[in-house]
Write a structure and sequence with these properties.
Structural class: mainly alpha
Number of helices: 5
Low-confidence stretches: 1-12
Shape: globular
Oligomer: single chain
Strand content: under 5%
Distance between the termini: 41 Å
Radius of gyration: 14 Å
C-alpha cells in the first residue's frame, strides 16, 4: 500500500499554480533553481512523497527523471489550463535537496559532479 494517499498528493490545497521567477542575464542554474524552489516549495514535498513511496515498495534505485515525469503527470491530472513547467536542469538540484533532507536516501540516487552554468 502506498505511503501517501492520492488525494493527499494531488490535493489542490498543496498543488498550486507553478510560479516562474524572473530570469536575469547571467544567472546560474543554481540561482534559477533557488528562485524556483522559493516560489514552489510544494514540488520538493511531492518529490519526497514519491520517493518515500518508492522506498516503501522496496526500490533499490530511484531515478529523478522518473519522479519528475510522475509529478508532471499527477500535476496535469489535478489541474486544468496550466502549463506545468518543471525545468529538467533542476533535477540534480532536487536530488541533492532530497539527500540533504534524507541522508538515508543517498544510496537510492546516482549523483554526478555539477557542471558550472
Amino acid at each position: 500500500m502506498p505511503v501517501y494517499q492520492q488525494e493527499q498528493l494531488l490535493g489542490l490545497d498543496d498543488i498550486q499554480r507553478v510560479q516562474q521567477p524572473a530570469i536575469h542575464p547571467g544567472q546560474s542554474i543554481q540561482q534559477r533553481f533557488e528562485a524556483f524552489h522559493a516560489l514552489n516549495p510544494w514540488v520538493l514535498r511531492h518529490l519526497e512523497a514519491l520517493t518515500q513511496d518508492c522506498v516503501a515498495k522496496g526500490f533499490r534505485r530511484v531515478g529523478i527523471g522518473m519522479l519528475f515525469e510522475l509529478l508532471r503527470w499527477r500535476y496535469g491530472e489535478a489541474t486544468h489550463g496550466d502549463a506545468f513547467r518543471l525545468n529538467n536542469n533542476f533535477r540534480s538540484r532536487y536530488v541533492r535537496l532530497l539527500i540533504e533532507r534524507h541522508p538515508e536516501w543517498a544510496r537510492l540516487f546516482e549523483t554526478r559532479a555539477l557542471r558550472a552554468a
